[in-house]
Amino acid sequence: METQADARASFRKALADTRGYEPDSLARRPGFITSVERFIKKPRRDIRSLPRSIKKSRPQGVAEVSRRMAEGSTSAVEQTRLALEVIESRQAELNAFAHLASPKELLDQAEALDREREAGRIRSPLHGVPVSIKDVIHVRGMPTASGSRVMEGYMPQDDATAVRKLREAGAIITGKTHTHEFALGVTTSQSRNPWDITRDPGGSSGGSAISVATGMSLLGLGTDTRASIRVPASLCGIVGYKPTFGLVSTDGVVTLSWSMDHVGLQGRSCEDVAIMMNVLQGLDPRDPASLDLDLLGLADDDYTEYLFRDVTGLRVGLVVDALEDTDAETLQAFNSSVDALRSLGVEVTETGTPSADDFRLATSLGLIVSRVEAAAFHTSFPDAGPLYTRPVFEQLDEAAQVTGVDYINAQRFRGEFQERMLAHLDGFDALIMPTTRVTAPKLEESDQYLIILSQNCIPWSFIGFPVLSVPSGLTSSGLPVGAQLVASPFNDGMILALASALESVTEDLRP
Question: pTM score, two decimals?
Answer without folding.
Answer: 0.97
